[in-house]
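Open question from group meeting: does this chain pack into something compact, or does most of it stay loose? Before anyone orders reagents, we agreed to write out a predicted structure and look at it together. Recording both the input and the output here so the notebook holds the full record.
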Amino acid sequence: MTARALSVPPVWLLALAGAIVVGVVAGDAFLTWLPVVAAVCVLVTFGLQLALKIKEGLVLRILASIGGVLAILLVATIVLSLLHPDALGRLIS
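Structure tokens returned:
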């Protein structure tokens, strides 16, 4: 397997699992917890890249991991905003 196949999908799965847990547990406070999921995914990304010890393509693997995390969390934010519209109102006011 390539380094990209070993290091990128696990971070995406972590982001998806984190978004699901936040959606189920946090309720209206999802805007507080989704950035925490993003931060954990960034730390895991760097940890996986350091564990691989492969220099070639490091920046592309990090971009793929974090870009995927941002896309997953964007979709989660949109879905949770539709389910909890009052949360956005508290953010604005």
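Observations to bring back to the group:
The first helix runs from residue 3 to 25.
Residues 3-92 form one domain.
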